[in-house]
Design brief:
Layout (H helix, E strand, L loop, with lengths): L13 E4 L5 H13 L7 E6 L4 H12 L2 E8 L2 E7 L41 H11 L5 H22 L23 E7 L10 H9 L9 E10 L6 H7 L8 E5 L1 H8 L12 H21 L4 E5 L2 H7 L19 H16 L7 E5 L17 H7 L6 E4 L20 E7 L9 H15 L4 E5 L14 H21 L4
Parallel strand pairs: 1-2, 7-8, 8-9, 9-10, 10-11, 11-12
Antiparallel strand pairs: 2-4, 3-4, 5-6
Helix pairs in contact: 3-4, 4-13, 7-8, 8-10, 12-13
Amino acid sequence: MTDWNAKHPFESHVQFDGGNLDCGNGLLLLIRKHIDPLRAGQFLEVRSTDATVEDDLPSWSRLTGNELISRTRTGDVRSYLIRKAGSVARSSVPSQPLAELPQFDSRFTLKPLSVMGIGSWPRPAWLVSALHEWLAGRLPDETFQSYADDAVRLSVAAQERAGVDVVSDGEQRRDNYASFVGTRLDNCQLIPISDLLSYVDDPAKFAEELRSLDVPLEHVRHPAVFGRISRTQPLAGHELERLRRFTNKPIKIALPGPYLLTRTMWLECVSDKAYPDRESLAQDIVLALRQEAEYLLANGTAIVQFDEPVLTEVVFARKTAGRSFMCGTLGEKKPPEEELAFASGLIRAVIDGLPRHRVALHICRGNWSRDESLALTGPYTPLVSTLKNLSVGMFFLEMATPRAGELEPLAELPETCRIGVGVVNQKLDRVETLAEIVAKAEAAIAQFGPERVLLNPDCGFATFADNPLASAEVAERKLAAIVLASRELQNKYGVV
C-alpha cells in the first residue's frame, strides 16, 4: 500500500496511540494486545509517529493475515486502520451477522421428552481404515468424503429407524469428538499422542492409561498449535451440508467447547511458540467457535451443542484413577475455582447472545473406556454454580451411570433451561428395559416437570473412532428403547 488517504473509509472499533515505538521495539506487542479481543472483521486504528512503521506494518499484516485497510497522516502522526483476520470479506465461509440469526422459529421447537443421541455413532471398520489413510495423506480427500457420506447415510438411517426426534451425522468424519479441529483450523496439525508423552508428569502411567483404549498410540491424535490459529474454513459446516442430503429431521451438531479446546491445545514448549500464554490461545479459540456457531445456526442447525467434559476433571480428578478425557488433561491447570471461572468466561464469550433455545452444553465424566473404574465419579454439585450462570437452553447430562450421582443438585439450574437426561449407559451391551428407562425419566420429570425434560444416552456411542463403546446394533436398540419410553411418557403427560 503506497497511497495516503484523507480519512479512513471505516470507523474503528478500538484505537490506541503507539507514540514513537517502532515495530521492533514494542509496537507489535501493543497491536496484538488491542486486536486480540476484537472479533473477526472489526477494525483497529493505530497511531504512530515513527516513520519506519510505514514499511514494517504492511509486512506484519501480510504475515499475520490481518488486513491493512488504509492510512492517513496529519503532521508527524500517522494513522493505520487494520481489519482483523477472518472478516466476512476474507473468509470462505463467513459468519452471518448475529442480528440476522432466527431467534424464534417453530422449526427449532422441540417437544417435551424428545429423544436424540449425544453425537458420535460407531463407525464402520472400512471408514476407520479410510480415516487413517486420509489423515496420513495417503487417501485423496474426495475419496474419503465419499466413504464418509456412505457411513453418514448408515448412521442416519439407524437413528431414524430408532425414531429419534433430532439426528446427528454420528461424527463419522472425525477421528474423535475434539481433536478433529486440528484438520480444520489454520496453523494447527494432528499429531500422534505418543509424541506428547514427554509433556506429561508421569509418561509411564499415562502410556498405561492410553493402552486401556486397546488402540495403537499412533492412532490417537492430538491437535498441536504451530502458529496463530484462525478459522478460514468451517469446522463442521461441511458436515451439516452433507448431512442434509440424508435427512429432513432437525439436526444437531456437536462442537468441542472453548475450555476443552484450550486445555487440549495449550502445551508448553509447543503452543508457547505461537502464544505467550493459554489465555491468548483461548481468545482465538473463542473467536473460531463463535464464528462457527453463528454460521451453523444461520444455516439451519437446530441445536449447536458444546462438549465440555473436562469440567468434571477440574472438580473430580484424583491421583489414584480417573482421567476425564486424556487429551484434555495434558495442559496447564490451576486450582478448581480459578479453572471454573476461566472456563465460564470462555463459554460465555462463545454463546452469549446466541439463540438460547438452540444452544446446548454436554457434560460427562469420561467416555474413552468401558471400564467404569477409569472414569471420574461425583455429583454435579460443585459445577452447578457455574452452569446456572450460562446462557444455555439445554444441558445434556450423564445420569444413567451411578458415577453421576443424583438429580437433586440440578434443581438450582434456571427454569428457562431444559435438561437432557441420560437414561441409558452407552458403555453397556445390555439394552435397558422399558421399565428402567421410564423410571429414570420419571425421576427427572418429578424434579423438573415434563416440559423441561429431554431424553438421551449418557454420552456418544463412539467418542473415539478407533474405540467405539457399543456396536451400531446395540446403539440403535438403545435409542429405540428410549423412544418407546418417550412415547409412553408423552402420552401420559399429554404432550402433543
